[in-house]
Amino acid sequence: MADRALRGMQIGAKSMESEDGVVFADRYIVRYACANGHEFEVTLSTEATAPATWECRCGITAELLGDTVEDDEPKVIKPVRTHWDMLRERRSLEELDEVLNEQLALLREGRLRPEGAYRKG
User: Fold this and answer.
1) How far apart are the C-alpha atoms of 109 and 111, rounded to whole Å?
2) φ, ψ for residue 79 (rounded to 5)?
3) How far apart are CA 57 and CA 40, in angstroms?
4) How far is the C-alpha of 14 from the C-alpha of 32, rounded, in Å?
5) Residues of the chain whose pLDDT is less than 70?
6) I need a labelling partner for 72 at 20 to 30 A (CA). Which of 19, 25, 83, 105 fits?
7) Residues ≥6 apart with Cβ < 8 Å to 45
8) What is the signed CA dihedral for 100, 103, 105, 106, rounded to 10 degrees?
9) What is the pLDDT of residue 17?
10) DSSP string for residues in 9-71
11) pLDDT at res. 71
């Protein structure tokens, strides 16, 4: 089987998908320059605001060339939700106390194994 060649179109060489009826998003190009003298272009959507810095291929932060447009409204930063916060959204302290007591009773009866009891040292 390996000695026979596949006939027809080359695998992966061409796409069978056409671009008919596809509407591309409006785009614009911004230029950046880094301290090592590299200049490069980045294509962005017209709905996106160009960031003031971009990481260059050499790893150094590159600065935007030209004018920058600042956002008028600051972004709302949500506070970090911990596991405890999410748990408290679903259950009250009384419910949590009840679940804890049930689990402790099962552990004391030997119906649950303590953490790490399944591990072999």
Assistant:
1) 6
2) -65, 150
3) 9
4) 33
5) 1-16, 67-72, 114-121
6) 25
7) 25, 26, 27
8) 180
9) 73
10) SPTTTS-S---TT--PPPEEEEEEE-TTS-EEEEEEETTSPPPSEEE-TTSSEEEEES-----
11) 55
